[in-house]
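Regression test case RT-17, inverse folding.

Input:
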């Protein structure tokens, strides 16, 4: 194999109360894609931040192009030819796509004038390469989350770097966007670029990566070519033990109907009707953009409806705001945990109890002992990696933030719990913990709606599955009669019955 272009060895990094990296190592080879794998909080993002000079390492060494290297900051590593796409977006919503891509290094002509034409042309070319169908003059805030991510990717490749790091780049992408990204990754690789690819999606790893490095608890566990390993072996390396059955579906006798939606229309949702019993998990499947999130937002009051009825335990409700939805007993855990889920500057405790203050208060007083107990329970139950409940949530790893977001919804003890992509960015071990918790709430008689693009997850966890297409429900399946092919055919708008006829 070629000589590594970049080598990190035995890197150590501690934060107050956390040893994030404990002799972590990584090699990046030119013309190859290296997967960096590990559970939530294993230290992947931290290692990349040490590499690019965002964090100072405590110990260890780094070499780049055969020379010892230490970067003073992202600008420094960027100039040396190393680009990074961070797990969290770093773009400015009020600027255009092109302005975001070339921020601080706009092409200039004589007299230092910005050459706008050239900037927009170059940005348009980058977008075309990634198959993004927007003009570079579009404002960033007019793009979907996935499209914004594509802009971040366009920016990273615009530097023509020799090493490109991608920290969970496909989290918010549609399948088509992911395919375009993979095409570009292959081109970059063939041009000799070394790529670090971080993802929890095993399928992607086997699709696009050449080698794998595994970290566990900040330690280097091993490096091997993808062709020489299997999913099971990889999971074992990551979690340090074998995982049994991933989807522990349980049988619960369903109770009375809890939620009934009749003819709901508005905000991109068309004439949707369904019902949900106590102790039932209803999966909602469909392609990205099928209107699933919109439907959920209308149900819990974040988006307005024009027509239709929502009954909760036999009583008609009309939630006009998320607070209102919550008061009625409907909790929604957003797919966009940063945008409308968590307050990154507040602590784990504050984030979790934010919505549950009603339940935790007596008169005007918050019962702090109850709050602390409930929060600690969730930290334990969810196995949330944090030195304590007072840690600022922005310091938690991405997957652990997601667990806090789910705990936050559960703290309100809702009657209906809506989970929108609950395991996105969550590692295999933690996924299972989340599934087990969902089951526990199911057994307690909670009604749960599980919106997910992960088909095995929907199939494995739900009792019944609705499929959406263009804002409508286009199919309903009993989980035991459904399979991936049927769901997919339905999601793209084929009618199953016609086929059978
Ligand atoms: N700025 C910080 N201050 C305090 N602790 C931090 C900080 N950054 C990271 N950590 C801690 O370091 C550990 C490693 O986090 P890191 O974000 O590198 O994990 P990760 O492997 O990227 O996980 P994920 O898959 O969830 O994104 C975690 O326990 C995290 O809480
Ligand atoms: Mg991370």
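Golden output:
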């Amino acid at each position: 194999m070629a000589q590594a272009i970049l080598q990190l060895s035995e890197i150590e990094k501690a934060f107050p109360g956390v040893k994030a990296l404990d002799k972590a190592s990584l090699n990046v080879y030119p013309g190859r894609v290296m997967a960096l794998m590990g559970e939530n909080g294993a230290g992947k993002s931290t290692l990349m931040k040490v590499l690019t000079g965002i964090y100072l390492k405590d110990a260890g060494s780094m070499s780049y192009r055969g020379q010892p290297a230490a970067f003073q900051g992202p600008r420094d590593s960027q100039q040396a030819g190393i680009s990074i796409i961070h797990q969290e977006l770093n773009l400015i919503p009020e600027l255009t796509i092109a302005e975001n891509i070339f921020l601080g290094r706009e092409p200039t002509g004589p007299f230092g004038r910005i050459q706008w034409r050239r900037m927009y042309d170059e940005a348009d070319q980058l977008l075309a390469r990634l198959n993004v169908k927007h003009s570079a003059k579009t404002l960033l805030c007019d793009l979907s989350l996935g499209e914004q991510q594509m802009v971040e990717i366009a920016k990273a490749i615009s530097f023509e770097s020799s090493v490109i790091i991608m920290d969970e780049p496909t989290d918010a992408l549609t399948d088509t966007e992911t395919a375009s990204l993979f095409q570009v990754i292959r081109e970059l690789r063939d041009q000799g670029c070394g790529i670090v690819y971080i993802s929890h999606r095993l399928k992607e790893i086997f699709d696009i990566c050449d080698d794998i490095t595994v970290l566990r608890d900040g330690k280097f566990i091993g490096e091997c070519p993808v062709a020489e390993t299997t999913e099971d072996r990889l999971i074992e390396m990551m979690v340090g033990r074998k995982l049994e059955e991933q989807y522990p579906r349980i049988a619960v006798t369903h109770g009375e109907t809890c939620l009934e939606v009749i003819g709901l229309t508005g905000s991109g949702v068309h004439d949707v009707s369904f019902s949900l019993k106590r102790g039932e998990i209803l999966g909602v499947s469909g392609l990205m953009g099928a209107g699933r999130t919109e439907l959920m937002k209308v149900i819990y009051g974040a988006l307005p409806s024009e027509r239709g009825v929502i009954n909760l335990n036999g009583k008609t409700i009309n939630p006009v705001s998320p607070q209102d939805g919550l008061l009625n007993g409907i909790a929604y855990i957003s797919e966009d945990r940063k945008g409308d889920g968590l307050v990154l500057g507040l602590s784990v405790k504050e984030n979790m109890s934010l919505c549950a203050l009603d339940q935790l208060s007596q008169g005007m007083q918050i019962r702090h002992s109850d709050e602390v107990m409930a929060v600690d329970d969730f930290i334990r139950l969810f196995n949330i990696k944090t030195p304590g409940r007072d840690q600022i949530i922005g310091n938690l790893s991405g997957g652990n933030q997601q667990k806090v977001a789910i705990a936050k919804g559960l703290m309100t003890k809702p009657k209906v719990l809506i989970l929108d992509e609950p395991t996105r960015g969550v590692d295999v071990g933690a996924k299972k913990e989340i599934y087990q918790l969902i089951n526990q709430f199911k057994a307690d008689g909670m009604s749960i709606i599980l919106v997910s693009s992960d088909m095995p997850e929907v199939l494995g966890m739900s009792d019944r599955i609705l499929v959406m297409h263009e804002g409508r429900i286009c199919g309903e399946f009993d989980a035991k009669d459904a399979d991936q092919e049927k769901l997919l055919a339905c999601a793209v708008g084929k009618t199953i019955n016609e086929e059978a006829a």
